[in-house]
Amino acid sequence: ICVLMGHIRFLLACIIILGSVTAISGCFCDHYAWSSWSYCTKTCDQGTQERRRNVRHDDHWNKNNCVQLCQIYEHRACNVDSCPINCKLSEFGPWSECSPCAKKMFRIKSVLRPAQFGGQDCNEPLLDERPCHPSKECVLEKGNCKDKFTCDNGRCINAVLECNGQNDCLDNSDEKNCGKITRVCATERVYYVLPGVDLIGNGFDAVAEQMRGAVLDNSIMGEECLLNRSKENRKIYRIPANIESYEINVETLEDIKVNPPVKTQQVTSESKITSSKQGLPGGFSLNIPILLSIFRNSQQSTSFKEQISAFQKKDSEYFRLHQDIATATFRTKSSDLYLSHPFLTFLNNLPLDYNYALYRQIFQEFGTHYFNSGTMGGRYDLLFQFDREQLQTQGLTQEKTQSCMQKEFSIFIFIYMTRSHSNRCGTNTQTTSYEGSFMQTSEKSITSVKGGRSEYTAALAWERKGVPPDSTTYKDWIKSTIDNPTVIDYELKPLVDLVRGIPCAVTKRRHMQKALHEYLASFDSCKCAPCPNNGRPTLSGTECVCICQTGTYGTNCEKRAKDYTSDAIDGYWNCWSSWSVCDTTLRRYRTRSCNNPAPQRGGKPCQGPERQEEECTISIFQQKDVCINDDDFETEGDSESVLPPGVSGCAKPKPPAHSYLRINKRVYNHGDHDEFVCFSGFELEGYQLIHCQQDGTWEDAKGSCIKRICPRPKVPKDMSIIPEKDEYFIGSRFSLSCSDTAMSPSGPLYYTCTNVLTWDPPVPADIHCKIDEPFIPDTSCGMGEQRVGSSCVCIPLEDCRSYKNDICALDTTRNAAMMSFCSFHARRCHGDKLHFINDGPCKGDVNWAIFRASISENSSVKVPCGSDTCYEWETCS
Fold it and tell me: Where is the signal peptide (predicted)?
C-alpha cells in the first residue's frame, strides 16, 4: 500500500501540474477577432498598416493568461511600390543659326527629371525645328591648302595625287587638264573592294551602340598601291588610303579549321561591356550593361522598355551564349585621314559661335566616335531567361546550366560533323517536355545577329514553342559573313580628333568637345532615382527603367524571391557638378558624390573617380568666339601678319607670352607703337609699349607678363576652403574646415600666398579630417598647467596642437583669433596677454573686446568665470 500510495501521490502531483499548464496555455486567441487594417501611412514608397485584436476582458481572457500569450497589435508593410515620378523638361533653348546644309533652325529642351516608377512620361519632342533661308550655301569653304592641291569642291589633297587617274577630289577636278597620267599602280587592272571596308569608315554612337553616317571616305586610294591578294579566288584587293592594315583571316568555310569557341556566361544587372575602348572625354565611362546592349541590338520588334518589362515579371536568371566569326582584322591610320564629303561639309558649316542644338546634330548624324581598329565578321548572340525557382527545384546550379547550354549550342553549330547525341543535356523534367532540348525550356529568349545577309537573321532566332534553327542555316549565315562582314569588336577614337585642317578647326574642336559633354550627360542615369533592391537604373529616352539583379523582379524590382534576404544598399553616383572656371594653370575640374543612394548596411561603394580635371582655355574675347586655325599660335590673336606687297612699315608683331595686343593692326607705320596687355592672373613687369623701327622690325619688348597668383590647393571632399576661390593673389589667406563639426584638419588651419607663389605653410599632401580629441584638464593643477612629478608646470604649446580650435580670443596683436581651450590657457600660463571673447567662431566686431581688455588691468576684482574673467563691473552667470 505504501508503494501504491506513493504512486498515487505522484499521479496527483502530475495532474496538478498538468492542470496548471492548461490554465496558463489554454488561451484561445482566435476567440478575439482582429479589427480591419488601418489606412496605409503612405500612398507609395512602403507605408505601414496596423490592426488591433478586439479584446473582451471576460473570464476566459482573465483566467488563461491571454494578455501574455496573445498578440494585441500587428503591423505590415503596404503600398510598397515606389512613388511615381513624372517627367519634367526645361523650356526650349534659343534658336540656332540657320544651318546651310539642313536649311533649318533648331532648338532643344533638356530632361530635368526623367519619368520613373510609372510616372507620366514626356511625350513632346525634345528637338524643335523650322525651315529658314540660310545666308550661305552648303559648300566646302575653300581654305588655305598651302602646298597641297585645292579641289574645286574645297577639299585639300596631296599634290602628288593630281593627274593619276583616280579622282581623289571626288569631283574629278584633280584629273582636269592633264597632259600626262601618272598612275599609282603599275597596271590598269580593276581591283576589288575589301569586304566591309565602307563600314569601317562609318561613325559610331557609343551611347546608342549604333553606326551612323560615314565620316571617313574609304573609296580614296591615295598615293600608295597597297594590295591584298586572296589565296582562294585569286582576287586582288586594294587597301584604301585611310587603312593602315587589313588582314583577311577567313575566305571560305574550310578556313575555319576548328569550331569557333562558344562563350557562355550568366548575365546579371552588374555585367557590363568591357571589350571596346571608348575614349570618352574626362575619363567618362559608359559601363553599358550587357542586358541593355542585347535588348537594344535584338531583332525583336518591341521597344526596349517593353522587353525589360516582359523579362522581369518573375524571378529569373539570364544566360548568354555568343559566338564570333572573325573574318578579318583592320587598323585605321593615325593621321592624314580623308574625310567623307558629307561629314567635311557639315564641319565646314558649323557656326563659329557655340550653339548646342547645332553641334548636337553632328553626333546625331555621324556619331560620337570613329573606328581606330577592330575585327570584321559576324556575331551570333543569344540571351535566355530561365525561371530561377524551377532551376533550383531541378538542382541545376549556375555551372550545370551553363554547361548544359554550351553542349546543346555546340552541337547545333557544329560545322563538320552531324548531330550525334540524341540527348544533349541529360533527362529532367524540363527537357522531357521539349524533346530533349534544354534551351527551349527557357521562359523567353532574345536573338541578336550581326553581319551576314539579312535573310538569315530571322531564321536564326530561337523561340520557346517554335522550331529551333538548324545547323544548315547557321552554316549559310557563316558563309554570308565572309562577303558581308560587319565590325564586331572595336577600339574607338573620339570624332573630335578628325576635326583638323578645316577653317577655324581649333574653335570648332573646342565647341565639339563642349557639346560632347552635354550630349553624354543627357544619357546619364545619374538623373534617375534609386531602384528598390539594388536594381540598376537606366535612362531610356525620357524615362528611367530598373534592371533587376538576381533574386529580385517586378516592374521596378520591388519584389523579392524567398531566398533574397540582403538589406545592403549599393552606392550610385549622383550627377557631375558644373565645371569650375578655367584657372591660370589652364586646368578646370568638376566633382560628383556617391549619394544616389549612398552605400548603406554593407553595400558596395561607387566605382570610379569623384573628381575630374582637364585642360581648358581662357579667351580674351568674351562676347564672340574667334576663328582659330590649326596653324595659328596657341594663344588667341598673337599670330604675326605679313606686309602686303609694296607696303612699307611693320607687320603685326607677336606679343609676349600671356598677353595680347591692344591696338592689334595688320600694318604699322614707322614710329608707331602698340601695347601688350597681360591676361587675367598675370601682372606686367617692366614696360608695356613696343615701337616699329625704321628698318621694318619691332624693338625687343622691355616687359613681360608674370603670373602673380597661387593656385587653389587640392583638399579632400569633406574639407572646405574659406574663402573658396580658384586663384589667390600674393598676401591672400585661406583657412580649412571640416564639414563634420566633430572633426578638424590634420594640418595647419591657415595658409598665406607668398611672394614666391607658394603657400606658407605648405599644404600637406596627406591632409585629412580627423576626429577631435577632447581636452581633459588636469584638475590637480591650475588652468593651462599639467603635473610633472610633484610639481605643476605650464603645458608645452606643442602639446595643444592636436585639439580643436573652439575659443575666440583677443591675441597679443589685438586681433581676434581662434584657438583651442588647451592653447588659450597654456599661452596665458606662459605669459601671453590673451583675453577671452566667446566660445565658438569669432564674431565680426571686436571693438568692445579691445576696449574691455584695455581697462581690465585697472580692475581690482578678477574672478574666474569658465574660460573668461569677470571684473569689478561684471557678474558671472
Answer: 1-23
